[in-house]
Structures are given as structure tokens and as C-alpha cells.
Amino acid sequence: MKLSRTLLLSLPAIAICFASTASAADLTAEFDAKHKDCLERIAVDNDLAYEEAMIWQDEGGGRRAKHCVAMALYALGHEDEAASRLDALAIASDGGTKLMRADFYAEAANFWLVAGEADRAYKSASDGLKLRKDHVDLRIARARAYAILGRYDYAETDLTSVLVFTPDNADALRYRADAKMKQGRLAEAKIDIERALRADPTEVETALLRGQINEAIRLDALPKSSAETP
């Protein structure tokens, strides 16, 4: 079964994250390579990757094996179980450095969002931000959870924080444009969505949101009697 979920395979970043905290160089290099192979196998055969990751976990593969189990579960469509395992890994004794744990929380928050669990996504993201306040992915995940929960003002605050760290972050600009549109601040939403398109002209979701914002601006400019339907 081939993997269709592009969220999974940010492999270079994951590999660097694990490799950077090596204590026994040879063993760490071996485990890092096995972890990378495990993640790559998910893209080829989800079921086999899950089975092999479970065996590795039972044999003492530690956080790398646990992480691969969670990612395989996500690829198999078990987003809630994958998110729960990542939350558990973030507080486990072998969860690694603060940055690693924050990364696990970020993945968990995004998986909870895919599962439609905004409250749980909010908690995962908030717990992660207690470890790393400058974690961009956690800020964006929490903002998305806030937006789903109707707290567009809080979502905007988190996204503005992201843009302090990464001013041309196309995702943050798009989500902030949406939050501003939902609050009726159409001119500001228009500025953000145009910035998002300049940062990443290929993103379809950004183009679609720009269309929605432009239509909202057009309708807002009509005389009230013209905008109303009979």
C-alpha cells in the first residue's frame, strides 16, 4: 500500500534531530539509519512498515521505533491512535531533548487536527509550546485549533507570533488572512493573502482563499439592498 500523505516524510529534519543528541556514536548512527529506513518504508508499504516498527519497538528500539510506529499508524489512517502515541512519546522517559519532545507534540497536534479533534490538538500544541515557545509548527497547529473552535482572535495572535520568527511563512499568512476574514477585517485579510501568494505562488489553498476574500470584499461594497437576496 503506497503512502499518499505528504505530511509524513520530512526525513532530513527528523534524521538530523535524532542524530544531534547521540551519546554512543556507533549505536546512534545505526539507530538513526534504521529509523530513516523505517520512515521511508512507510511510503512503499504501510502495513509492512508498521509490523517491522512494532517488532523493533519490542526489541528495544526506543523513541525511534515508537516514532515510526506512530507514523505508520497515521499512514494507515489511524490518526487518533498515532496522535495519542506521539503525545505519550513526548512525555516518555526516552522522549529525548526538549526540541524532540516539542516536535512530537507538533506532529501529534497536526494528527489530531486531521482526526477532527480540535480540543486535543490545542492541548498537544500548548503542551509543546511550554517546552519551546518559538516552535513555529506548534504555533500554527494551535492557531488552526483555535480557528476551528471559533477563537479567531487567539488564532491571529499565535500566527502573528509565527510571523515575527518567519515573516514570509506562507502558511501562517494564509491562516491569518482567513482568521481576519472571519472577523470581518477584509482589507487586512486581503493584505495577508497577497503576501502569502508572493511567498508561495503555487499553493492552491491560498489562491482559493484569495477568491473568497475578493468575493467578500465585492459583496461588502454593494449597497445593502443590492447585496440582499429577495
Q: How would you characterize the overall build of this protein?
A:
The protein has 230 residues and is an all-alpha fold. It is built from 13 helices and no strands. It starts with 10 loop residues before the first helix and ends with a helix.
Notable features of this structure?
230 residues, mainly alpha, Serine Threonine Protein Phosphatase 5, Tetratricopeptide repeat, 13 helices, 76% helix, 0% strand, disordered N terminus
CATH architecture descriptor name of the domain at 150-230? Alpha Horseshoe
Tell me the Rg in angstroms: 20 Å
Strand content: under 5%
**Can you tell me the CATH class of the domain at 150-230?**
Mainly Alpha
* CATH superfamily caption of the domain at 150-230: Tetratricopeptide repeat domain
Helix percent band: over 70%
Number of helices: 13
What series of H and E elements makes up the topology?
HHHHHHHHHHHHH
How would you summarize what this structure contains?
The protein is mainly alpha-helical and 230 residues long. The protein has 13 helices and no strands.
SSE arrangement:
Layout lengths: L10 H9 L5 H18 L3 H13 L3 H14 L3 H13 L6 H17 L3 H14 L4 H13 L3 H14 L4 H13 L3 H14 L4 H18 L2 H4 L3
